Batch of 4 targets.
Target 1
Amino acid sequence: MGPHPAVAAIRLAVRRVLHDILNDHPAPETDPHERPNPPLVLVACSGGADSMALASALAFEAPRLGVRAGGVTVDHGLQPGSDLRAAEVVLRLRELGLDPVESTAVAVGREGGPEAAARDARYAALDAAAEAHGATAVLLGHTRDDQAETVLLGLARGSGIRSLSGMAAVSGRPGAARRYRRPFLQLDRQTARKACMVQSLPVWDDPHNADPAYTRSRLRHEGLPALEKALGKGVVEALARTAQLSRDDADALDAWAGQAESSVRDAAGLLECAKLYALPPAVRRRILRRAAIEAGAPAGSLFARHIEEVDRLITGWRGQGVINLPGKVVAQRQGGRLVIRQG
């Protein structure tokens, strides 16, 4: 008799991702079990159902593919006893057979709001852990439900098609572009919880996930249920599908903008307004955004309204003055050229 369907589903998702990782890092040997230095894959685990299901699937699948499996939990220090919770997660991961396993504490700032600040601190800690252990990849437990919530949050911000593309199955910062893998983006949250239940895996329910003070919590417990009541079942699946379609379109437009950028710069490297004007708006605005980021504007603080203001220097020139952007970056039109620089 095989495993419960929920357990089989999460194991299959992890197996596919591990195969992808091995394909990205092929070994000279024909037998993966004979690798002299088998790749290390870490699971980021909060102790919640999604990440515990992911950890159990990784612990099961990794040895069968000749992959080392470890885990890391991040203590955000936002709740009393968070250090004890982190210690419990470390113990559970070790009981699953993961090694190395560590807990890392972070200080959460305030920039961008509590949710964004916690996310930034968490990814910085995961990057540091991956580099310290020489990990090839870090697995994250985001599910299809998380993806749907991310799409709706992007829609509410009005930040364009890239915001609607949600979370990528594979992502990472420059220099480690394929570090983060999300095996569960096609699985719903209930499947992960069921997998934990049938395996008798203890899970921790973060009280922040039910706290209406947090935008994502309100969306999860009020917004999405209201949409399903009004539109019927299938909203989550439709939003996740929208994310993938939007990502495909956004990737194509990003590639177009990357190819077009050199053609709209003069010999000194300055952007020429007339040539920018001739481009489709979606391509032009991508070039403007990239130029602003290269000048020092933080990507996370650069919103569509900022780029629209800069774009008006191209499409609606009426002698406007300097446009102030995040990161003390300024944009201005000078002699038919667009200058974006530190102010």
Target 2
Amino acid sequence: MAGAATWTTVSYGQKPSMPVIGYLCPESPKLFASRLDAFHQGLGEAGFVEGRNVKIDFQWANGQYSRLPALAAELAARPVDVIVAPGGAPVALAAKATGTTKPIVFEMGGDPVQLRVVDSLSRPGGNITGVSSLSVDVSPKRLELMRDLLPAATSLGIVANPTSPTAESQLQKLRAAAETLRVQLQILNASKEDEFESMFAAVAKDGPSGLVFTSDPYFAFRSARLAALAMKYQIPAITQTRDFPVAGGLMSYGGDFMQSHRRAGVYAGRILLGEKPSDLPVQLVTKVELVVNLNAAKLLSHPFSAAVIAGADEVIE
């Protein structure tokens, strides 16, 4: 489905005339538009079109992740047939914590077993299943790509969101990778958008040669801001999502979010058709993509090697 979504209002207290999906989102409709389009595509593959034979009841956190538990509880109390919790581990954990018996479909970049969202990938158990990509697992590859770009660097910065449930596991893997790559790491914490500029300014003044962002939905949905700051302060940086180089940043390496959201739509449709979450194994989106921006590399005076360009899934000129 192309274009903007239709925001459907559910009349509470009345039995809906068609099935209802409760959609819990950590961001705003504008920032989530491309992901929502992919979800609609998957839903359509299962035979459902919003407004025709299914309604969607939205709850938007608008970037205030602390609101997710309350929004999830409110959504669980409404007459919805399935709850969709896309956009990362915080959303999935908030939906599960409601204790609802309604089916839940999550979409995240972390390991749902390690985070105790499901019992196992093949047999998720209970009323929850979903889709997981490799964005969290490939954080060390981002460090490797930055090290290749800056072979003379003795120190690289790792930007982590301390409020993220996957931050510590990513940092452990990054520290191990740094030993192999023989580079020192400087850990920088940021969990609010108003902290971004001061962080970039500090790095530009007397900091590491480049920045590697851990996988985190809060960072992913602020790619345009991060790209602008990286170029303003002339700092090579890499994030998990293609949104970053598309917005003018240097490069990204991470899971294919369009595919993971599409598959979440398929699963939501299958559950509406009568399948049980416990019978649907957690799907792994194994595709990862490298996107590079040649113009950003030129402006930063750090051109990519021919091998990196040849291996990129997309080259932005």
Target 3
Amino acid sequence: MPDVMTFSPHNPPLILVADDDKVMRVCLRQAMEQEGYQVVEVMDGESCLAAYTQLRPDVVLLDAVMPIMDGFTCCTHIQNLENGNPYTPILMITGLEDEASVEQAFASGAFDFVSKPIHWAVLRQRVKRLIQQVRLYHHLQATNDELIRLAASDGLTQIANRRRFDQYLHQEWHRLLREHLPLALILCDIDFFKVYNDTYGHQSGDDCLRKVARELEFSARRSVDLVARYGGEEFAVILPNTDMEGAIQVAKSIHESIDALAIPHAGSQVSNVVTVSMGVSSTIPSQLIDPAMLITAADQALYQAKAAGRNRFKTLEIADRERLNQGTPSV
């Protein structure tokens, strides 16, 4: 876990100084560099916006009164940037001492301000405090991202877990419902995996699961595809914007990649290496059906693949309602 006192997007921290007065810019640079910070100087608000977008500094020291675009306007634009960092503190430097100017600085998005003539010890302390806040924010953000990742991943295989599968299936179902695009699902089961565990031991079984998971991720390689551990030796592959023909191509790729692993399986009744059976389903989401029906279709197709001798895939589209309503359970 990163150290709160050392974690920063830039090392050392980067300060962006915007002031139209060259002498003031030099003084600010020297004061910040004496504290060990990196410094970039610009002379107006427009240049500040460009530098901010490119560099994403840790802190912005922004003069309130500048030609063309004043500091208040620049500060507002920074806060409204579409891809802007929501936690880049801006310290306004102003010679305006009236209460309305101070309120305007905070209203435009400034975190703090210092008045001219600058009290340099005060400036250094305020910048130091802002840097600490930035570091704490990024530390907490990184920690939160890691917790989210752990909550959504399977501890053994490091792919998505069942909880993440359920979330993503519903998310993509509703997105593709709006866009009237297809969604495919592959359920994949390792053949005779209990026998494999009994023959080679659970550590080898765990290693087998990890290898199969990696090959599934390789076969479903688009960023929108999701491979999840569905339960035990069963995996699921969600393929957004994919019709049955496309899903079949992924299923064929999975078969080829698992075969290429050539993991010995002396207890298998269909091969001398580890194989998989798969059920493939696809549909265009509509208001008349729900995600559970897509899962049911893939599960029944998987049952048919097993009943037909394993080490193969079968397909079933939701449009085939008569077969779907038979409710044949998987084995």
Target 4
Amino acid sequence: MLTRRITYRLYPTRQQESTLHYWRKLHCGLYNAALANRKTQYQKFNHAVDYFEQQNSLPAFKEVWPEYKELGSHALQATLKRVDLAFQRFFKKLGGYPRFKASRRYAGWTYPCKSGWKAETSGLHGSLNLSNLGSLKMRGQARTWGKPTTCTIFWRHGKWYASITVQCEPARSTGEGSVGIDLGCKEAITLSTGEQISKPEFIRQGDIQVKQASKKLRRKRAPNRTKRIKASRRWTRERQKVSKLQRKVARQRENWIHQVTSHIVSRNSLVAGEKLNVKNMTRKGKSKTRQKAGLNRSILSVGFGMIGQFLDYKLAEAGGFYVESPTQQLKPSQRCVKCWELTPKTLSDRVHVCANPHCNHVEDRDVNAAQVNLAWARGKELASSVAESSSSTACGSMRQLGAKKRQKPQAS
């Protein structure tokens, strides 16, 4: 059994929508109260409050604030769990210190079990019943429906949504082939067969529209808390336009990646990619250059991280395998697929010409990298105990290669 998440659009009535906003405000108040309790107890009494202590105090809390009784105990416990997870991330140095949240920015709440809600659907549209609220119409489609487990209600961009997790057994058809892939900015996806998939033109046009709208936004009076300046009405309207365009481009990109990855999985049961740290790749440079900013924008526009995630779970559904090669050790863009020789290149070198005089293999750079990933996945890579030739090096520049050759042997 696998767990899948399906998001449905909710269509509440005016009275139901007012109640949903009121409940969202109450959950936000509980979140801030739990955060203030932990902070005050530690600063004044040196006492570390944990999740179970706050959970056990919920009955007394609801006696003082009776409006929380209609929300359900499990939903309130899930809100307290959010506070606990935020502090756990802080202690593990994965995030900053938890901060108080404004009610207009608080997304929603979660039902961690089947209590308090019921989804009346078989996967295509239907309705959602919430305790003390009634039935809400919802619209959406699940590829595979199963046993509902949790439900999260959230407010985003002026609309209500329900994110439902189900336990199911998804089935997907796949072929008997195997292929290696290489991700890039010039061509989004390059296959080991020589096929290249470019980023669609509508995503390029969407990026241009976002850039033009952002330029108009910068000309309006932006808010500044330090100087106590409020945003102008024109800035607010323009900000909404930019957000709408950004959401449209994000949805188009996600839909395109779904189509491309499904097409690859339908023909191949083994897909070999490379392990990329997108967060470090798109990090700002030491000197703020427009060239690095443009490279970061191109990487994020293609969606390097999403492609690997989609291939991974879709191949798992089809019974296939998705393997990622260690990029820093293997160096697919520099290694020759024929003789496994390293040939250092720069970003401007788009053709691979093997430096081994006995090989002289010539191939497109991205196609060769995809073939190297596939060869590594099949187990054709050289063993680590086998020494490489003197012209091979683990570095990525000709300067380091020359320094290694000029190094004098140590006296025994």
